[in-house]
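> call design_seq(struct)
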């Protein structure tokens, strides 16, 4: 089954974001060949001296271990690079406590309670 990744810039789209999305900057959605959403990643805006933060990274159980999450994060990284940013963070407790090894495999390093990735 072929999966596709679609990206949605929430700030520059000209759409007035709802309250739920007001601090969000970018949404990436993974879609299978049937058009069903199978995963997503949601990025918060960088604030002051803090890097942009991935608030959510979720993939349906049956699609885990197929590089979907890695591809979602890769799209966010590409977006940040194009935006002139060179760092992002994630707090694994927001997603799944067992996800720390996944983020480490992608190059994230612990920095206090969060993990950061420089690129």
């Amino acid at each position: 089954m072929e999966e596709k990744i679609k990206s949605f810039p929430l700030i520059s789209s000209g759409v007035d974001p709802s309250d739920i999305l007001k601090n969000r900057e970018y949404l990436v959605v993974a879609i299978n060949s049937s058009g069903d959403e199978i995963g997503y990643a949601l990025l918060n805006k960088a604030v002051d001296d803090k890097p942009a933060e991935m608030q959510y990274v979720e993939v349906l159980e049956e699609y885990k271990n197929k590089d979907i999450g890695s591809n979602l994060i890769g799209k966010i990284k590409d977006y940040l690079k194009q935006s002139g940013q060179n760092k992002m963070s994630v707090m694994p407790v927001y997603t799944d406590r067992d996800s720390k090894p996944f983020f480490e495999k992608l190059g994230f390093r612990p920095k206090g309670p969060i993990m950061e990735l420089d690129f």
